[in-house]
Amino acid sequence: MTSAAPSKIPFVDLHPQHEPLQGEFEQAFQGLLSRGDFVMGKAVEDFETAFATASGASYGVGVACGTDALALGLQACGLGPNTSVLLPTNTFVATLIGVLRTGATPILVDCDPETGLIDLDAAADTVREDTHALIAVHLYGQMVSPKALLAFSAAHDLMIFEDAAQAHLAQREGFRAGSVGIAAAFSFYPSKNLGALGDGGMVLTAQPEVSDRMRCLRNYGAPRKYFHTELGTNSRLDTIQASLLNIKLPHLEGWNRDRNRLAQHYDALLAEQLPQVRPLVNHSGDGHVYHLYVALLPQQIERKQLQADLEDRGVQSGVHYPLPCHLQPAFRDLGYSLGDFPHAERHSQSMISLPMYPGLGKQQVEKVVEALVDAIQEQASSGLDSRETGSLSNGLQLKAQL
Ligand SMILES: Cc1ncc(COP(=O)(O)O)c(C=O)c1O
Fold this sequence. Notes:
By secondary structure, the chain is of the alpha/beta class. The chain folds into 2 domains: about 15-250, Aspartate Aminotransferase, domain 2 (3-Layer(aba) Sandwich); about 250-400, Aspartate Aminotransferase, domain 1. The protein has 14 helices and 12 strands. It has a 7-stranded mixed beta sheet with strand order 1-9-8-5-4-2-3, with helices on both faces. The protein has a 3-stranded antiparallel beta sheet with strand order 10-11-12. Helix 7 links the parallel strand 4 and strand 5. Helix 4 packs parallel to helix 5 (about 95-100), helix 4 crosses helix 8 (about 210-215) and helix 10 (about 305-310) packs across helix 12. It is globular and about 70 Å long. Bound molecules: pyridoxal-5'-phosphate. Pyridoxal-5'-phosphate binds next to helix 4 and helix 5.
């Protein structure tokens, strides 16, 4: 394994995390080879317990990926046909796929323009008779306010289910991600704050019934061998991935702290040098684990060109996400259209994600901001912004994509 060339700043680089652990990874692989417990071995049980404990939950049930954690977790909580579920349109599409896989009806909700998180006031307006749950997606590493979620749950008599795929060990108001709702789904996709060297996922819960049903659902619907009580599937956290995650977990808190410090450095530099670029607001202080560092660009900036200009300056960037769920062609049947969720639409058009990973140096953050200042100045002086091209206002850009 070799690190990326120092002059380039990749969007994500996992080498700084993995290089110091390589020897332990190799030992874990040797251990698995000699034990031979390739499926659901001791490492899975150990990791389920360790991750649940670290997150303030009672039970952890490992599955194959975060999408399965959502679909099976929601099913284990009783969601299915004849129920509806509130969820944000500003999320990775897996949140919506998870709901659809249960047979429940998704009700999409706009986001708060300052944080990008679900707008609970807007959610309150769309609760229906058959609404059984709200999915709080702790997006970009920041939790949706636990106090507000618990108040929402009580006021509308519905369950809170957390999509914590981007928020391992995030904290807010004294709660950890995964300890607020009836259950929570996590992903261990490699670039997550806690990532495997492949796919993986987990459901956390404080409820023994949810944990038991999850164990059954991930194991062909069988509570015990060759006895099947419902239609389940085969979705297990790989034993080798669990072994590697056990090695990485003790480092997670430190990695999250590094992310938070880097974000503070970005915040300060942007406020000083580029106040027109606005980072999403952090209401969680040190509890925000910055899976992604997201900022909103001024409306007139042509983002594609800006990203190309950054790349020319050796800086990779990302967009999370360029098209909200309600405008994805796969979900046209849900009946939503352009204009339904103006904040999420504007966010999808103006947001940019800057490099963020443990091991990124403070000087590299400075280089990213320097490149951003240069690229924005260049765009302003070349006249290549939406005022000049006249055709790139937010709504029109989205229309062009659809
Ligand atoms: C918010 C969110 N939910 C769900 C998922 C799905 O996880 P996975 O890719 O492990 O299926 C992801 C990750 O990709 C995610 O970011």
